[in-house]
Input
Amino acid sequence: MADISSLARQTNDLDAFWLPFTPNRAFKRAPRLIAGAKDLHYFTPDGRAVLDGLAGLWCTNAGHNRDPIVAAIQRQAAELDYSPAFHFAYPKSFELASRVAALAPADLNRVFFCNSGSEAIDTALKIALAYHNVRGEGARTRLIGRERGYHGVGFGGISVGGIVNNRKFFGTLLAGVDHLPATYSREHQAFTKGEPQWGAHLADELERIVALHGASTIAAVIVEPMAGSTGVLPPPKGYLARLRTICDRHGILLIFDEVITGFGRLGHAFAAERYGVTPDLLCFAKGITSGAVPMGGVIARENVYDAFMRGPEHAIELFHGYTYSAHPLACAAGLASLDLYRDEGLFERAKSLESRYADAAMTLKGLPGVLDIRTVGLAAGVDLASRPDAVGERGYEAMERAFHDEDLVIRITGDTLAIAPPLIVSEGQIGEIFAKVGRVIRAVM
Ligand SMILES: Cc1ncc(COP(=O)(O)O)c(C=O)c1O
Output
């Protein structure tokens, strides 16, 4: 029989777990533990209810522990735990792919499943390279990302990503990558609700990159329609359409990373719909299962898929995939989540709350140290002035105080706060969240 005192020791010992994207020593001195959740709240082990101001990590769009999703996962676990993802398939994976394709605009109709946003990015980059290869344009090997872009943590994702700390420790990354400039300018855009007027011309930088390298060497451009992780940077009006035009002119694939913007965050199934711009490949994750089971994927346009369907029929067309691609639990959670989004009209709800949300966020304008506020859909970014010689310290303290003093979870990137609650948030809760954030800001100044 297990020795109870040793079990207790193991439960309470924080040493073994190396937390991701977390200052481990600071965390372990004052842990923020979450033991349960329902709808818009987390519950701590000591029973506090904490408002979730970030939909998990931008993923629990339908709210936490929703009964239909929980029941679907439970049923699924009892019915089929796993089936091989290569050479065999589980019927619900086709159903989920069809449902996702139906939500995506135009002929974005072929869905490749994986298990996370990072895998979705690597998958899309590999499909783009292979697409040119199978069409006899194998010299198109360059990938173009954007400064301040976040595309997960695989080597592909950090190579096209534009966050220095995610790149500089990890060697030479992928060769042949270039970057567009970030679309953010505080001087021209401060305190804008929605898409800023200034900045569409920054898409023309792609022409400069094409002139430098030659279009025949460039495979794809990847951007987040709205950059989430670097502080909620909505695209300037017309910017994405301009990128699309330039990509078309030069035969370059356009990839949207919709890992955050997918499944309602901007008031539509995908940001591609909001902006009326159809990419060639669209990456999704997070909201597909409302965060309940890991899942990601890439939606390809039909011509991209068709380019691969040419060799002998017994031969594999794309040498890529994951053991857990289209895992039965993820498929079940995905289908239940899409049902909930539809039945509760959650994407439309996000759209109808957008202006109320923006107004609530802008009430923080004028507080000491607030340098900028950006909003789009149900997302807001708030830049705080950094402490001299201690960039990120004020942001970290804000996140700690929010959790311990205000019973609120928010996200930070340096000294920027991000607030993006589940799409079931009520008008009253929106007010409550920003009132809490206001008190936190005052406390850390
Ligand atoms: C835009 C974007 N792409 C990719 C990722 C990576 O997703 P994951 O953490 O599931 O690998 C994220 C995660 O936040 C993201 O925001």
